[in-house]
Design brief:
There is one protein chain. This protein has 22 helices and 15 strands. Helix content is 61%, strand content 8%. It has a 4-stranded antiparallel beta sheet, covered by helices on one side. It has a 3-stranded antiparallel beta sheet with strand order 3-4-5. The chain has a two-stranded antiparallel sheet with strand order 1-2. Strand 7 and strand 8 form a beta hairpin. It starts with a helix and ends in a 5-residue tail after the last helix. The longest helix has 37 residues. The protein has 661 residues and is α+β, with helices and mostly antiparallel strands.
Length: 661
């Protein structure tokens, strides 16, 4: 036993060392706030997301230098700048063979070559057409999410371009150009569109750094023509207003709150903008445009300039610490001042404590830790011992699992069940909790072993599929603390109970392969399956009904056979048929076990398939992509498993005369 604990401690030590090794480059500024997709998050969290989600590769620089190259807007981007185009469909569209392509070659393919340009933007336009069409239901639409001047008309499964923007990459379109569309395209085109837009955002970031400021170009042109200072000022202010210049700075690392609208933040690079002063007839540093005091603004500017000059010097980390301290001290002056109001009350920026906590939470590989801990707990529970200490590893693991959910809930100020990643974290927690209750009632370790196995499998899937998006705001359709807590927690919680029933059902069916299975074990397993199903139904049915009440409030109807609603109904019916079949004697213990496996397949499709495979319906907040092949493999495996098990059971009856209960 001592050797097992030694292996466990050594494994955890390796994980901690891995954690510490990956955080060094970002430590000076890791807790400094930045705005990302509507949330104010630590820069260290955003940095990791930025470097992994963008396609930029800077092979001649370290990770630290690559990060601050974009943070500071370094003008001299190295010639080694390459993009990584990992999506094979996009590579085929752009007619490139290697995932790595130079920046100039990529620009030529997307912005200059009309043939590849149209092929590249077609799925983007069609995907956003469907999204906008479902929201507005009009035949004439503006795809404002792509460009405010991109307008189309829809008729007879065809969209016609009505107005073409003058900007890349849309300017190769022609007025009257048509694209055929069909509902079947929505799923595949959405995936391709998301990848294409990610690539376009990466290009926009680099272009913003490489393109000279048009304000300065206009200024030098006017000076060369001998225009008077007053006229220069008027022309520059009319053609290049300050808010437009701030909006056109490289779209990344938003760290400076706007003076007039504090909820809008500007990139840190904005601080290096210059403005024309008529009195001195010269360019001057931009004046304070932030919510911070003039004194804090100047401190930030000085620290920024010093860090920029030390980008490749030994004093880099010291200057980064100075900038971090300056930004953080300035930020603390606005955290207790509301920047807006909603029906739920005033809105405040997150505290520095919460930012630090999120930085810590995001730096810990929770999935890996829980995989190791739950696997270790299974090994200990399988030992032929009955003392209390065999439950200690699982107790510690469950505590860590609970802390993961509590920290996430505190940081986001909501229950952790608004996306696939969060539900994959929450469902096994319910399974383990239900397993503990059943283990206590029936004095058996089987429910705990099965629940731990379920948790391990789900976390392995989470790791393999890469479902690790950053912490994010709740979607607008879920923006109700009451209903999110009641309806969603109940429905998702039922998945945990059904998952436990399904795993125990697998154990029953595998145990039936024994030549002489003990009836008492079969009876115990069937009772555990039934109790898990009862718990699941007690959560799913009321949760589904309450979801209808929420739908009546939000959408004006209680039920409309939306795909998610339909499959929730199918799930309820499936388990009700199994339970009633057992109650009326139609299904014996074996039938209950088979039913639990079939029911789990139905629940898996309700949970994952509707959002990731069907990809339609009003419950669009959960849509995603990825992992379909793994899901299909699961369905095939379960079908084969049930077929083989049934065949073996049928073959055993005539020869042995056994009648498995």
């Amino acid at each position: 036993m001592r050797s097992i604990f030694t292996i466990f401690i050594l494994t955890m030590s390796v994980i901690v060392q891995y954690l510490q090794a990956g955080d060094g480059d970002f430590s000076p500024l890791k807790a400094t706030p930045t705005l990302h997709e509507g949330r104010y998050i630590p820069l260290g969290v955003y940095s990791k997301h930025f470097l992994t989600s963008n396609h930029i590769e800077l092979s001649s620089n370290t990770l630290k230098q690559a990060l601050f190259l974009h943070l500071l807007g370094h003008e001299d981007l190295p010639p080694s700048l390459h993009f990584l185009v990992k999506n094979k469909a996009i590579r085929n569209t752009l007619q490139i063979t290697s995932p790595k392509i130079s920046y100039d070659s990529l620009i030529q393919k997307i912005q200059e070559d009309t043939k590849t340009n149209i092929k590249f933007i077609e799925p983007v336009i069609i995907s956003h057409f469907w999204e906008t069409y479902h929201q507005q239901g009009k035949s004439k639409l503006t795809l404002a999410a792509l460009h405010p001047n991109l307008k189309i008309r829809f008729s007879n499964n065809t969209i016609t371009i009505q107005e073409v923007p003058a900007q890349n990459p849309w300017n190769h379109l022609k007025k009257g150009q048509q694209f055929s569309v069909s509902p079947e395209q929505q799923k595949s085109y959405k995936k391709l569109s998301d990848n294409s837009l990610s690539l376009l955002r990466s290009i926009a970031i680099v272009e913003a750094h490489r393109t000279p400021d048009p304000y300065l170009k206009e200024y030098h042109n006017l000076r060369s023509k001998g225009v008077s200072p007053k006229s220069i000022g008027n022309i520059l202010n009319q053609k290049h207003p300050l808010q437009l210049r701030l909006a056109n700075v490289a779209p990344s690392f938003y760290m400076l709150p706007d003076k007039n609208s504090p909820e809008i933040w500007h990139p840190l690079q904005s601080i290096s903008l210059q403005v024309y002063d008529e009195t001195s007839d010269a360019l001057m540093p931009i004046k304070n445009f932030t919510t911070y005091t003039d004194e804090h603004f100047e401190l930030i500017r000085n620290a920024y300039v010093n860090l920029k000059s030390s980008l490749f010097n030994e004093s880099f980390l010291e200057e980064a610490s100075t900038l971090a301290n300056t930004l953080n001290s300035s930020y603390t002056t606005i955290t207790k001042i509301p920047y807006g109001h909603t029906a739920n009350g005033p809105l405040f920026f997150p505290s520095t404590f919460k930012l630090s906590l999120e930085s810590l939470y995001s730096s810990i590989p929770w999935t890996l830790i829980l995989i190791v801990c739950y696997s270790f707990s299974i090994l200990v529970l399988l030992l032929p011992f009955k003392p209390v200490w065999v439950y200690i590893p699982l107790l510690i693991t469950f505590f860590l699992h609970t802390m993961t959910l509590l920290l996430r809930s505190y940081i986001l100020a909501r229950p952790p069940v608004s996306n696939m990643t969060e539900t994959v974290l929450f469902v096994p927690w319910v399974s383990v909790l239900a397993g503990a209750a059943l283990s206590y009632v029936y004095h058996s370790k089987i429910p705990l072993i099965c629940a731990s196995a379920a948790a391990t499998i789900l976390f392995l899937i989470l790791k393999l599929c890469g479902l690790h998006p950053p912490l994010e705001n709740v979607q607008a359709v879920l923006n109700s603390q009451f209903w999110l807590t009641i309806h969603v927690l109940m429905v998702v919680g039922s998945y945990g109970a059904f998952l436990l029933a399904g795993v125990i059902g697998h154990v029953y069916l595998l145990y039936s392969y024994k030549k002489s299975p003990q009836p008492s074990i079969n009876t115990l397993l069937s009772k555990l399956i039934l109790q898990s199903m009862f718990l699941g139904l007690a959560l799913l049915i009321p949760g589904t009904i309450l979801g209808g009440v929420w739908a009546a409030q939000s959408w004006g109807r209680f039920w409309d056979w939306d795909p998610k609603e339909s499959w929730a109904f199918i799930s309820c019916c499936t388990y009700l048929i199994i339970v009633h079949g057992h109650y009326f004697g139609v299904l014996k213990n074996y039938g209950i076990a088979v039913g639990s496996v079939i029911g789990l397949m139905v629940i898996a499709f309700t949970w994952y398939g509707v959002n990731y495979i069907l990809g339609t319906g009003l419950h669009s907040y959960g849509f995603g992509n990825g992992g379909e092949n793994l899901f299909y493999l699961y369905l095939i495996f379960e079908t084969i498993f049930l077929a083989i098990n049934s065949a073996v059971r049928y073959a055993k009856r005539p020869s042995s005369g056994l009648r498995t209960p």
